[in-house]
């Protein structure tokens, strides 16, 4: 599974670096390094509300520090189990 | 709207924007290109030259360079022979202000007895004068002047000479470092840089609105001082305009500068002595004049090439177009180590020509954020910024003064570069890191800047302080090995 986190200017201002670090932490905590690749991307085209990420081919907007853990559980952890 | 410092830039802008307009419409036909001179110089327009035919002929030459010039000539800078006004090169001259005084300080200061007096007024004996200039500084009336051509004056690498027969300026390619000083300083606009604006537009058109491949604009940190004369045009609005031209995203070269600062600090601590590699004109200056110092040139890519490399890793089919104040970057793009990463180099002048071609009223646009780099990456735009960033990077790497005693010298402009390199070449330089910036003030003084204003440095510094990341390590943490 590839997770792209947008680090373009708009997402960067909306805390994408923190989201990325948290994602990395969660991947490590759940020992998913073999299954999940975390990648930065310059602009995924969802500028505006929160951070935009892409899980494989699906675009998810409005990600932030308040929902990244839940999102990870629902979309990444479940899919990898 | 008056974006430019002088009317020569305005003239060049007319040609570039007209070419760009046709290129966007895919109408660069032979007929349209041939007609361009009469479109730009219509009947009845105010004359700058002797006749309309000469003006049109000059526009024709500008059009050639705007279309990329002669691909077989590697130099990025060329003299437009017909536009060269053959400025006088009389050397030292006595002007009408000579009062015929009795002190004769001029003659007394002359080491070659080259000054005589005719009807009490001083005259210079050309065959004896060595143009040392002592008489100029000794005359109490400021009546003695030295006439040199502005292009020759601007060129500190002695690459510009005057053809004895034609009296036209000639560039010696083996000495020229493509710094562009002559381009900016020729008052007749007779020296111009080759443009790749049509290449950029073709890339944009053929991307089919970023569907076939994405186009990334990498913008130099000096972007923030380009519209110093027009405060209504903010950086955020310029970013919106760049995207409206057809770029997928706009990324700060300053993020590449953060990476370079971090790597440069490590390389420096390991090797003990380095010269910077960010300024391509400085690198070329060393290679052509101080080849024994070649091994001390930092092995890092420039910030432009470094960030482009990262973009290409993230998106291998993407195209990267650099936009900056620099003509030498066009030459750097030809390097084997750079050409795979950077697809095209444009200047800020050419960026404004793209805006004009698309009739973009930048002032009225909304703001789009531009935020990728740290304070330190952003201040690379002014002299002293790189040395300060490396100092900070050394600290961030935990390299103590005992381990490496950092002694930088920031060379602001080519004259200071020359002095430091001369010393380094003889082993007499007490510093161990040379930050070399060929343009006065650093990149904010680049030849293709729209503005060369005293406000520029402050604008860069203020923009630097707006950065979210306060350290270099924070700004580049996103690219650590695990993340990529």
Number of strands of chain A: 4
* Poorly predicted sequence stretches spanning 5 or more consecutive residues of chain A: none
Q: Can you identify the CATH superfamily of chain A?
A: Glutaredoxin
- The overall pLDDT average of chain A reads 92
**What does the largest sheet of chain B look like?**
4 strands, parallel
Rg of chain B is 25 Å
Strand order, sheet with most strands of chain A: 2-1-3-4
The overall strand count of chain B is 15
Based on the structure, what is the oligomeric state of the protein chains?
heterodimer
Shape by Cα distribution of chain B: globular
Chain-averaged pLDDT of chain B: 95
CATH topology of chain A: Glutaredoxin
The SSE string of chain A, one letter per element, is EHHEEEH
* End-to-end CA span of chain A: 12 Å
Specify the helix fraction band of chain A: 25-40%
Strand content of chain B: 5-15%
Rg result of chain A: 11 Å
| Helix/strand structural class of chain A | alpha+beta
Number of domains of chain A: 1
Explain what the structure shows.
- The complex is a heterodimer of chains A (81) and B (484).
- Chain A is α+β, with helices and mostly antiparallel strands and 81 residues long.
- Chain A contains three helices and four strands.
- In chain A, strands 2-1-3-4 form a four-stranded mixed beta sheet.
- In chain A, strand 3 and strand 4 (58-63) form a beta hairpin.
- The longest helix of chain A has 14 residues, at 16-29.
- Chain A starts with a strand and ends with a helix.
- With 484 residues, chain B is of the alpha/beta class.
- Chain B has helices at 7-24, 30-40, 52-66, 105-109, 134-138, 150-154, 181-185, 197-206, 235-245, 253-271, 280-289, 303-314, 328-332, 348-357, 375-378, 385-396, 414-425, 456-465, 472-476, and strands at 77-79, 91-94, 115-118, 121-124, 144-147, 160-162, 169-171, 191-193, 215-219, 249-252, 274-275, 319-324, 344-347, 408-412, 433-437.
- Classes of the chains: A alpha+beta (81), B alpha/beta (484).
- Chain A binds chain B through residues 7-10, 12-13, 17, 20-21, 24, 38-43, 47, and chain B through 216, 239, 248-251, 311, 314-315, 368-372, 468-469, 474, 477-479, 482-484.
